């Protein structure tokens, strides 16, 4: 915010006095991050800024207690106030050799100042973390995407598709990600929403796994498997990128203490399957199922289905004969894999209750103990659970992406589709209408999950 002329004059006088008291201004190097404590600075303090045709100065408050500091900047010709919102503020513009930043009223607070000629260093990201799922005392979470899969479209006559059990490609370079996870009662949202402030908070649970993971949507994300959480508890989660960029918050609730289903994750052939499934607990010391511990009598039939489908798909002249101006055989295989994984791995869930009750209700289907599961290759378990049905749009995506000769057909909302799919959440369910569903999505940042989009 540019200050009016009377305030500019006052600032210049105050700045000059500060220079005399401090004998020399401290210089802030270009493309650097500096941390200051108000107790070690004169009040007011003047920090010298480098000259640049396009300089960005960002400020982040690190202290959790309330503070009243102000940040005034002169670029050599005008005076601006860096206004803070949620503990963060920035200014961008040209600066001359006598540009400076005046800090007034810092008191005992700690803050960071970043100076860059290549955009802001501090940032509150629009992209959110992703909640995978939880059990009573475990959770799977993901960072925002940090890269996207780079693939070369196959061409005729050497049109090849990934094998059913392709290994994960090498991860691209990743930023440094930190997960901050606390019960809702810790009131993280009342703190300055800056990396340095949130990083000072102790995080709930213990991270049992943290790795880079390529989800089926082609997004590279950092993945966390967290254990040691409390049952039936609301949690708030943030992800901090390179100490200075904040993503979040998102929210979720752990399942009740009686929730019986274990989590599954890190399946190369079903890369977006990261949720609770109706199986007996994995053998110790494993805390969840992954690609190395999942029983082969579950994975082998799925891989065979995927192989057979790919063989049949390649009988079409992929790359030579077009069946759609928008879709290719690669798109068809990707969407079929997503559908196959969502119906092959039934997802356990439980109804929301009490203060966590949601509307509309999720597409839950009670599964009594001893009843044969949807996937015949899954064992019959001796406990009751609720199955969260796949979103009908997962089936529609395959129908849209694949050649007509494959004969893919999805149930119709007007005729019992809700017996096997979640209907009306993303799309309305009306013929030919895309969108306009009751929620518009399969899950939201508040922890509501209405159907399984895999």
Brief synopsis:
The protein is of the alpha+beta class and 454 residues long. It is 15% helix and 27% strand. The protein is globular and about 75 Å long.
Question: Overview of this structure, please?
Answer:
The chain has 454 residues and is an alpha+beta fold. It is built from 5 helices and 23 strands. It has helices at 5-22, 195-198, 296-313, 329-344, 392-401, and strands spanning 26-27, 32-37, 45-48, 52-61, 70-74, 79-81, 88-95, 100-104, 110-116, 123-124, 130-134, 138-142, 147-148, 177-183, 206-214, 219-227, 234-241, 245-253, 263-264, 275-276, 347-349, 364-367, 385-388. Strands 1-3-8-5-6 form a 5-stranded mixed sheet, covered by helices on one side. A hairpin with a 3-residue loop joins strand 11 and strand 12. Helix 3 runs antiparallel to helix 4 and helix 4 (329-344) runs antiparallel to helix 5. Residues 6-24 have low confidence and may be disordered.
Portion of residues within helices:
10-25%
Distance between the termini: 45 Å
Low-confidence stretches: 6-24
Mean pLDDT over the full residue set: 91
Q: Helix/strand/pairing class, anyone?
A: alpha+beta
Instruction: Give the overall shape, derived from the CA principal axes.
Output: globular
Q: Could you give the count of β-strands?
A: 23
The percent range for strand residues is: 25-35%
Total of DSSP H or I helical runs spanning 4+ residues: 5
How are helices and strands ordered from N to C? HEEEEEEEEEEEEEEHEEEEEEHHEEEH
Radius of gyration: 27 Å
